[in-house]
């Protein structure tokens, strides 16, 4: 009942930047938290960053290069990625925990957007 659509992925050279976006839709009353995860081929999915109304959190190794932000009016979360390296190559997925008008809390995932860092 909460749908997520990611965008902004693509092919970028090492040292470059990308900005990912994820927009949530549905009969949303309140989004509690929005987060980004990534999964490289053959590896486990790992936490990237999250944001709520209180704070933003990052995977330690990414802090300083990645910045998460949100636009409450648009139910959208962004991930600004800088100084990209090949190890950042992965499918980046958006995760949202949101309360809807039916009184339920949903934990939803988007389909993901591919980021490939290569020269």
Give a verbal description of the structure.
- The protein has 119 residues and is mainly beta.
- Helices cover 0% and strands 59% of the residues.
- Strands 2, 4, 5, 6, 9, 10 and 11 form a 7-stranded mixed β-sheet that branches. Strands 1-3-8-7 form a 4-stranded antiparallel β-sheet, with no helix packed on it.
- A hairpin with a 4-residue loop joins strand 9 and strand 10.
Q: What is the gist of this entry?
A:
By secondary structure, the chain is mainly β. The chain has strands spanning 3-7, 10-12, 18-25, 28-39, 46-51, 56-58, 66-71, 76-81, 90-100, 105-109, 113-117. Strands 2, 4, 5, 6, 9, 10 and 11 form a seven-stranded mixed sheet that branches. A four-stranded antiparallel sheet has the order 1-3-8-7, with no helix packed on it.
């Amino acid at each position: 009942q909460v749908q997520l659509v990611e965008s902004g992925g693509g092919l970028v050279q090492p040292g470059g930047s990308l900005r990912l976006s994820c927009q949530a839709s549905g009969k949303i009353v309140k989004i509690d938290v929005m987060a980004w995860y990534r999964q490289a081929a053959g590896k486990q999915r790992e936490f990237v960053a999250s944001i709520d109304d209180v704070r933003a959190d990052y995977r330690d190794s990414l802090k300083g290069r990645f910045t998460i932000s949100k636009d409450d009016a648009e139910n959208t979360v962004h991930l600004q990625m800088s100084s990209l390296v090949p190890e950042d190559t992965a499918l980046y997925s958006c995760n949202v925990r949101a309360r809807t008008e039916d009184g339920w809390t949903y934990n939803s995932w988007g389909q993901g957007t591919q980021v490939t860092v290569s020269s």
